[in-house]
């Protein structure tokens, strides 16, 4: 594929991945978010949903390039898309910390402007006990935090120089944990939703992606075990 086309495709991926955040910002600045019954809950679900959508997009690249070899160039963008998934996961976590848990962001910012940065720590100390109690009490937060930590590890090891330092095989083993993170994300979703609003669509998508990986692995092993018939020798 031409270098110029790859650059344009990379720019397009950046724009597509940033589009949800731009829409959310417009939703906020237009005042529409304030009209929502529960703005914090809306932001929480919005960032969580897009974490999964973008994560699934990155996971889909592997089966696509395996079953449609002409699209193998997409693998160049897998890490980029995965990093955007971590970005939205971090926004999702930040929503919980700074909006849901009672962190007074306005007071913290006012303190910084007044030359008292210690107010950041003060506000953190105020919410920390409640957050710990909340995490210990709610399973969906525990599994969600576990998924975020996995994505953090993958994001930190995504640069090429770290991959070279780790070695290709070790790096691949570590980055297969992205499937564990995806499953944990789905469990996080299931455990927090109320009856009648189950995330079955994203569950089906992840199931298809996992089955595609299993199918490819099975086909690969079958080819290895199938003996190649010997050519008849001419007399």
UniProtKB/TrEMBL annotation:
One of its GO terms (cellular component) is plasma membrane. GO terms for molecular function: electron transfer activity; FMN binding; heme binding; metal ion binding; oxidoreductase activity, acting on diphenols and related substances as donors. Its main location: membrane. Residues 48-185 form the Ferric oxidoreductase domain. It is found in: Cell membrane; Membrane. Binds 1 heme b (iron(II)-protoporphyrin IX) group per subunit. This is Protein-methionine-sulfoxide reductase heme-binding subunit MsrQ. It comes from Tunturiibacter gelidiferens.
């Amino acid at each position: 594929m031409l270098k110029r086309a790859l650059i344009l495709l990379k720019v397009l991926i950046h724009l597509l991945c940033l589009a949800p955040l731009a829409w959310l910002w417009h939703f906020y600045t237009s005042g529409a978010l304030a009209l929502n019954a529960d703005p914090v809950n809306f932001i929480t679900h919005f960032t969580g949903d897009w974490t999964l959508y973008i994560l699934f997009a990155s996971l889909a690249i592997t089966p696509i390039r395996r079953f449609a070899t002409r699209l193998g160039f997409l693998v160049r963008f897998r890490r980029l898309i995965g990093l955007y998934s971590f970005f939205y996961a971090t926004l999702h976590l930040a929503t919980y910390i700074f909006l849901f848990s009672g962190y007074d962001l306005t007071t913290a910012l006012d303190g910084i402007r007044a030359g008292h940065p210690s107010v950041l720590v003060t506000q953190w100390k105020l919410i920390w006990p409640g957050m710990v109690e909340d995490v210990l009490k709610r399973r969906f937060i525990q599994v969600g935090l576990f998924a975020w930590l996995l994505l953090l590890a993958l994001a930190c090891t995504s640069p090429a120089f770290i991959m070279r330092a780790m070695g290709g095989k070790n790096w691949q083993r570590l980055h297969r944990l992205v499937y564990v993170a995806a499953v944990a994300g789905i469990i996080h979703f299931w455990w927090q939703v109320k009856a009648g609003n189950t995330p079955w669509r994203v569950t089906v998508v992840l199931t298809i992606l996992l089955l595609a990986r299993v199918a490819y692995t099975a086909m690969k092993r079958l080819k290895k075990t199938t003996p190649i018939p010997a050519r008849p020798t001419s007399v």
